[in-house]
Amino acid sequence: METRQPAVAGTFYPADRQRLQTDLKQLLDHATASDISPEAIKALIVPHAGYVYSGPVAATAYRLLQTRHDQIRRVVLLGPSHRVPLNGMAIPTVDCFRTPLGDIALDGAALQAVGNLPEVVQRDDAHEREHSLEVHLPFLQAVLDDFTLTPIVVGNASPGSVVRVLETLWGGDDTLLVISSDLSHFLPYEQARRQDAETTRLIEAKQGRIVGDQACGCYPLNGLLQLAAGRGLTVRTLDVRTSGDTAGSRDQVVGYGSYAVCQ
After folding, report:
1. How far does CA 158 lie from the centroid of its chain?
2. How many CB atoms lie under 10 A from the CB of residue 133?
3. Do residues 199 and 211 touch, judged by C-beta distance below 8 A?
4. 3-4 and 96-99: which strand pairing?
5. H or E segment at 142?
6. Which residues pair with 3 in a beta bridge?
7. Which candidate in 13, 89, 154, 192 could, as Cys together with 184 as Cys, close a disulfide (CB 3.0–4.6 Å)?
8. DSSP 81-99
9. In sequence order, which residues have a C-beta less than 8 Å from that of residue 178 and are 6 or more positions away?
């Protein structure tokens, strides 16, 4: 069995299993509550920075899954490529992804299904060092029981191509879609807050014309928003903050937002 080893354990989140479990519990226990019905959630948009920075915002989204811990069996996870230049989307050839909390089996049937699409290629190098997917895995392991993972790194891809992938993997109530994205990058605090507020308005309105300066995961995000608009789904904002609110100075901050796409 081939396994993708964790690339950012010990930097973006703790490599020690016990400390990681403790940190996740604290983040989830202190996450902002929401009045959204967990049963209505089909997809989440969640940030992917180090836990000290975006962990509180991510936990606001993942907390909502705790009551569905035994229902969600399939997670489809799309995030942007930071390390490898990529046109289209990349899936891995390995059998599982490893974190300090254990191994997560990949959904072979799902990967085969999307692997037949022209926009999707098999490239383990796109996954090997990519953090945009990995940082979500311990959160998912903390809130869900047994589940399989379909990890997809998204490069330069049209919204339509992302829609085709998501439609192929849509599934039923046992399937959750997760789009990984941060918001603004390295702006002064007040400017970042204004820009992230505008980006949040576009996300809530399902306006799939977001660009990279607004969200690094704009390619998978625009695809999800287009699909949500076509299916008449609702996007609800859960939490929007910056690194200046969670850790670090306010001279140059990164924006983070969590959103729920509800049926």
Report:
1. 18
2. 25
3. no
4. parallel
5. helix 137-143
6. 96
7. 192
8. -SSS--BSEEE--SSEEEE
9. 43, 44, 45, 46, 75, 76, 77, 78, 136, 140
| pLDDT band for position 127 (cuts 50, 70, 90) | very high
Enumerate the β-bridge partners of residue 149.
75, 106
User: In this predicted model, what pLDDT tens digit does every residue of 95-110 receive, in sequence order?
Assistant: 999 999 999 999 999 9
- The answer to whether the CB of 137 falls within 8 A of the CB of 97 is yes
Fold of 33-179+191-262: Protocatechuate 4,5-dioxygenase; Chain B (3.40.830)
pTM: 0.98
Residue boundaries of the structural domains of the chain:
33-179+191-262
Alpha-carbon distance 229 to 46, whole Å?
19
Say which amino acid occupies 108.
Answer: G
Cα–Cα distance for residue pair 251/148, rounded to 1 Å: 41
